[in-house]
Write a structure and sequence with these properties.
- By secondary structure, the chain is an alpha+beta fold.
- The protein has 13 helices and 29 strands.
- Strands 3, 7, 8, 9, 10, 11, 12, 21 and 24 form a nine-stranded mixed beta sheet that branches.
- Helix 2 (44-63) packs antiparallel against helix 5 (167-187) and helix 2 (44-63) crosses helix 10.
- The longest helix has 21 residues, at 167-187.
- The mean pLDDT is 94.
- It binds adenosine-5'-triphosphate and magnesium ion.
- Adenosine-5'-triphosphate is lined by residues 109, 140, 142, 151-152, 155, 157, 200, 202, 413-416, 448, 450, 452-453.
Length: 581
């Protein structure tokens, strides 16, 4: 490709409101253009990278035995009604009516469409298992679309759906997909971890996420410093903390604690570690049937409530903040809420205690009376407490598997695999006949990869202060051929000759034949992130060109006779180094 014809408009300045490097460089490098909030167009450079990522994903999915199909982007809302998700999915689901007043949704995910396809054609266990996938558009009306392709509203996903006669077979495919995803992300050159995850609105349990580790990640991961345990904080577990800490021994008593409304103040007042205090977190739960109720969570003072876990145990679709006035309207006071008579006062059955508090002694908690706390509280004396896992795992907590110290890391989700079981086949009445001619619901799995997000993530993990550094497998071109001065006849002639030679050897080359200063051409090369450059300059007088590696900025003089050999050797290595990682 000759740059003088190529549609690759680069920008000098960073567009405003851009936080992530990946977002800045993809815009400035002429890869993408924002068309609307969370909606992007791909320019030729962006489309080339997108196609390469897509090709790697397709190759590995086909190799793993899945078959490519394509579902309609739009799904009839009636199918979502039947699966029970139409109202549950929330505001991310964009619904609309056609001229006949039939309701549709813009597909944020396609379990319903996949079940509809399979149940129509697959009738017998002999036709199973089957894994179908597509690489296609999704729409989610995200509350905060941001960071460019990282969190769009319209984006491209690879979504696969597998169907099985029994659960064992589903788990076999689940493991097969995990291996397939590991190969994909390795070929893409990403530093990733596979973590235990929360399944969100897709449903099921035991799902795993593929997380790319980067300090800018939106997700917090809990990782063991000693063993392989890794989980999204939304699903992370920890070992029950030891009760051997120096417990503040005290007889049960009520203390006047005027204006002591925070855990920190309470700890200072009684000179105790926050571990021995009980924190009450009150939320306003919105439930599927439209009801709105106060929900009470009790955790140790040193812990924080994990919102996703809290949503699950309470069964709410949303947990909203509560004002002091709302709390006072039921006879409680912020900062002084505790477990004593809480059921009686609130008449609520939505009261949850963190598992780490089970039967704990020597605690301090609110007395459900303004300006008073209790000390010497023993939870074993209480009846009917419902303990569950609702606290966030902190750094320094202990691993359930090996007692190792748990750490936090930031990550970006690039893939998610779910063993769904019969979550969709049952409500959508999708069944087959087993070997005893008995009708059974399909066991189902689903497997997603954010294809367009992968462009952003790859840049985020591979860039420097000058621009992108693509790895060879997904770079839009393998090399840029830069003519230092296009007015120099000999340089141009030599460059034309090398360009033809590179093309003949099947090398993807961008020939920078623009009438621009050398500095501009170099800056564009560095911003775009193409792995290598060949500079045709004054060196040709002594029969040499300069070969530059974008990654470490190394420069090598290469004799004209060895150019193709040298270039091919480096390109092959940059691709295979990633593939065999
Ligand atoms: P997140 O927690 O980031 O919102 P999710 O759990 O909603 O992700 P899934 O429903 O599992 O995502 O979708 C599969 C994949 O699609 C994700 O792993 C991610 O790579 C990608 N993805 C999800 N939402 C977006 C988005 N708004 N923009 C771009 N890619 C997305
Ligand atoms: Mg999401």
């Amino acid at each position: 490709m000759r740059y003088s014809f190529f549609f690759a408009p680069t920008l000098k300045e960073a567009p405003k409101d851009v936080v992530f490097k990946s977002h800045e460089y993809l815009l400035r490098g002429g890869y993408i253009q924002q068309l609307g909030s969370g909606i992007y167009s791909f320019l030729p450079l962006g489309k080339r990278v997108f196609d390469k990522i897509k090709a790697i994903v397709k190759e590995e999915m086909d190799r793993a035995g899945a078959q490519e199909v394509m579902f309609g982007f739009i799904t009839p809302a009636s199918l979502w009604e039947q699966s029970g998700r139409l109202h549950k999915y929330g505001d991310e689901l964009l619904r609309f009516h056609d001229r006949k007043n039939t309701e549709y949704v813009l597909g944020p995910t396609h379990e319903e469409a996949a079940v509809e396809m399979i149940k129509t054609f697959i009738k017998s266990y002999r036709q199973l298992p089957l894994n179908v996938y597509q690489i296609h558009l999704k729409f989610r009306d995200e509350m905060r679309p941001r960071f460019g392709l990282m969190r769009g509203r319209e984006f491209v996903m690879k979504d696969a759906y597998s169907f099985h006669a029994d659960y064992d077979d589903l788990m076999k495919e689940f493991n097969n997909m995990e291996q397939c995803y590991r190969k994909i992300f390795t070929r893409l050159g990403l530093d990733f971890r596979v973590v235990e995850a929360d399944s969100g609105s897709i449903g099921g349990s035991g799902s795993k996420e593929f997380m790319v580790i980067t300090p800018n990640g939106e997700d917090t991961l809990v990782i063991c410093s000693q063993c392989d345990y890794a989980a999204n904080i939304e699903a992370a577990k920890r070992k029950s903390s030891a009760l051997s800490k120096n417990a503040p021994q005290a007889q049960f008593a009520k203390f006047k604690t005027p204006d002591i409304t925070t855990i920190e103040m309470l700890c200072n007042f009684f000179h105790v570690d926050s571990y021995f205090t009980i924190k009450a977190v009150v939320k306003k739960g919105v439930f599927e049937n439209g009801a709105v109720e106060l929900v009470f969570f009790f955790i140790r003072g040193c812990d924080t409530l994990e919102e996703t876990k809290a949503l699950h145990v309470s069964g709410a679709t949303q947990l909203l903040e509560v004002s002091n006035e709302e709390i006072e309207s039921i006879g409680l006071f912020s900062g002084f809420i505790g477990p004593y008579a809480i059921k009686h006062i609130t008449k609520s059955d939505k009261i949850f205690f963190d598992i780490d508090l089970r039967d704990s002694k020597n605690l301090i908690c609110g007395a459900n009376e303004k300006d008073y706390h209790f000390v010497g509280v023993n939870l074993a004396d209480f009846e009917g407490i419902y303990y569950c896992d609702i606290a966030s795992v902190k750094e320094g907590d202990l691993c359930m598997c090996c007692d190792g110290m748990l750490e936090h890391k930031k990550g970006i989700e690039v893939g998610h695999i779910f063993p769904l079981g019969q979550r969709y086949s049952k409500p959508l009445n999708a069944s087959f006949l087993d070997e005893n001619s008995q009708s059974k619901f399909f066991e189902m799995g689903c497997y997603g990869i954010g294809i367009s997000r992968l462009l952003a993530v790859s840049v985020e993990q591979n860039c420097d202060e000058k621009g992108i550094i693509w790895n060879g497998n997904i770079a839009p071109f393998s090399i840029v051929l830069i003519v230092s001065n296009i007015k120099d006849y000999e340089q141009m002639e030599q460059a034309e000759y090398i360009y033809g030679d590179l093309l003949q050897h099947g090398i993807e080359v961008l020939f920078d034949d623009r009438n621009e200063r050398f500095g501009v051409k170099m800056a564009d090369f560095e911003l775009m992130g193409i792995p290598f450059a060949l500079i045709i300059g004054k060196g040709i007088l002594k029969g040499c060109v300069e070969f530059i590696e974008r990654k470490n900025a190394t420069k090598t003089e290469v004799p004209l006779s060895e150019v193709i050999f040298h270039v091919k050797k480096h390109i092959d290595c940059s691709c295979s180094c990633v593939s065999s990682a």
